[in-house]
Write a structure and sequence with these properties.
The structure holds two protein chains of two kinds. By secondary structure, chain A is α+β, with helices and mostly antiparallel strands. Chain A has five helices and five strands; from the N terminus they run βααβααβββα. Chain B contains nine helices and twelve strands. The chains are: A alpha+beta, B alpha+beta.
Chain lengths: 94, 457
């Protein structure tokens, strides 16, 4: 199975430039426990890689208190921790 | 039902709902094992115009454990794609479908098969054709020969595969079972007594969608050997099937579509029949569906004191006095369903996978198929039947009901004498209550019922 780092994951997704900027600005210390992402099936991932590159990126704030965000693209997921970003997102709510 | 609509969440997601799982040494090709998983419960044959299909957004898997740890060592994955040839008609078919590439078929479905072994994924086949649903003699003439048989595909790797609609081969009197276990042949003994009556197969003339793979035994053993010794641990495999969906789904407002993203998350599973149906309590059913077999020890209390065993003496007053007085942990149920039976309990048989408690359909591949099967499987003295894997004709409901009624307690507790009714109780349904019979060759399940001739469901 193909292992993917956070950096590789972000590079493969079709996030907007603005979002990439936000993530790149996050201090590395903010994501100490972000695990590597494991594709469920390397062959299948390869087969559908074109679709994944043009697909959707979903960001799910899993825990408001800890700032834990799940980023999903294709069949991959990476856990990202950024309380500051979550606070800013919260402030954007009406 | 074996596992049709057995849990609250999955009952609302039929394309991902496992209904039955079968694993047996192929009677006509005994060097192979047939693994067959059914999905999409209770398909009414006339259910158009959008007839039943596999989910394109579902990952279907048949998993095999060959070293007893309750984790998959070999997995066959199936993923589907659907075409719409003509979006400007409401019709499933614009004329008779006479072959798998007939342009009159408006919604052909194709699939890929991927094998995962030792962590390595290999695509064994892609763009493999499914047959259409069996619509009726005008739309799908000569269904078996023209449409179903050509969909049986032999892969270069040696496996034979099929994915498509079949007649549901499970048989059970649903109406009586869910009416508080009011078994028609025993109604006179029920707490609300009525005259005894024959059982009625509630799944007759109903279809399902089948995923089947026929595999050389040597592909399934832990060391690639050919299992010839029934006493060897290497001869036993554990099998379960799952369906998974991607973690996130975004509905697109105003477009009628959706986008999925994220890793696959298991939403349905099935190993032994009737487990999540009748052993696991409703508060844990959804979690059970999301759990892997290796973690099943958390559910062991449901096996230690099965709810059905406690209900029987109350539903049939005075009929099960010995069962009513038995308060010990049901070690027989745990052995049969969670670990397999070790050597020395049943002469010439074992399907023990070790101490890890896991719900898997355990098959001793060294036990050859028999020409004279007994629908009661091992309870009927037929070592090639359930709980040694599962064949279509095995009377699963009756076997498990009798086990829960106490007939197998003496295997582990010789001091116990089963009630006379424990070896008699049944829903009164047999394979003779299935209209479209099983086939003698792969994929073995009967031709699906067509909507024109069987419109009543």
């Amino acid at each position: 199975m193909a292992k993917l780092t956070r950096r590789g994951f972000i590079k493969q997704t079709s996030m907007s430039v603005a979002t990439i900027g936000v993530l790149a600005a996050a201090p590395l210390a903010a994501i100490p426990d972000a695990p590597d992402v494991v594709a469920t099936d390397a062959a299948a991932a390869e087969e559908f890689s074109a679709a994944e590159l043009s697909g959707t990126l979903v960001a799910h704030v899993r825990d408001l208190a800890t700032g834990e965000i799940s980023l999903m693209s294709g069949t991959q997921e990476i856990i990202y921790r950024d309380p500051e970003l979550v606070m800013r997102l919260m402030r954007a709510l009406p | 039902m074996s596992s049709h609509r057995e849990a609250p969440n999955i009952s609302k997601d039929p394309v991902a709902d496992n209904t039955d799982l079968y694993a047996f040494v192929s009677p006509d090709k005994p060097k192979t094992v047939t693994l067959l998983a059914n999905f999409i419960p209770l398909e009414g044959p006339a259910g158009g115009p959008n007839f039943f299909e596999f989910g394109e957004d579902v990952l279907y898997e048949i998993n095999i454990d060959n070293n007893g740890d309750g984790a998959a060592d070999v997995t066959y994955q199936f993923q589907f794609q659907t075409q719409t040839r003509n979006p400007d008609t409401f019709l499933y078919n614009t004329g008779p479908i006479s072959s798998l590439n007939d342009p009159h078929w408006n919604r052909p479905q194709f699939y890929s098969v991927t094998k995962v072994k030792h962590g390595l994924s290999t695509v064994l086949g892609s763009n493999l054709p499914c047959p259409p649903c069996n619509i009726g003699p005008t739309s799908t003439p000569n269904y078996a020969a023209n449409l179903a048989q050509p969909a049986v595909q032999t892969l270069n790797s040696g496996e034979v595969v099929f994915a498509g609609q079949r007649a549901d081969g499970f048989y059970v009197d649903l109406g009586s079972v869910f009416d508080l276990l009011d078994l028609r042949p025993f109604q006179s003994l029920f707490f609300n007594p009525m005259a005894n009556a024959p059982g009625v197969n509630g799944l007759d003339k109903i279809n399902v969608h089948t995923i089947a793979v026929q595999v050389p035994k040597t592909e399934l053993t832990r060391d690639g050997s050919n299992p010839g010794d029934p006493n060897s641990k290497k001869s036993v495999i554990g099998v379960w099937a799952t369906a998974s969906r991607q973690k996130a789904r975004i509905l697109e407002k105003g477009k009628g579509g959706s986008k999925e993203s994220g890793p696959w998350v298991q939403v349905s599973r099935l190993g032994n029949p009737l487990i999540n149906e009748a052993i696991i309590a409703i508060g844990d059913k959804d979690r059970w569906n999301a759990t892997q077999p290796k973690d099943d020890s958390q559910f062991v209390e449901y096996y230690q004191h099965p709810e059905v065993s406690g209900l029987l003496p109350n539903l049939y007053p005075g009929v099960f006095p010995n069962l009513a007085g038995y308060s010990k942990v049901r070690a027989d149920v745990i052995a049969i369903l969670l670990t397999g039976l070790p050597s020395g309990i049943i002469n010439g048989f074992q399907n023990y996978t070790g101490k890890v408690q896991s719900d898997m359909l355990r098959l001793n591949m060294a036990i050859p198929p028999t020409k004279n099967p007994n629908i009661l499987g091992i309870l009927g003295g037929d070592l090639a039947g359930f709980p040694n894997g599962r064949r279509f004709l095995d009377d699963i409901f009756t076997i498990e009901l009798r086990v829960l009624a106490g007939v197998t307690i003496p295997l582990v507790d010789p001091s116990f004498t089963p009630d006379a009714a424990a070896s008699q109780v049944t829903d009164g349904v047999t394979p003779s209550n299935i209209t479209n019979p099983y086939l003698t060759s792969f994929p073995y399940l009967g031709v699906p019922y067509d909507g024109f001739d069987y419109p009543g469901h």
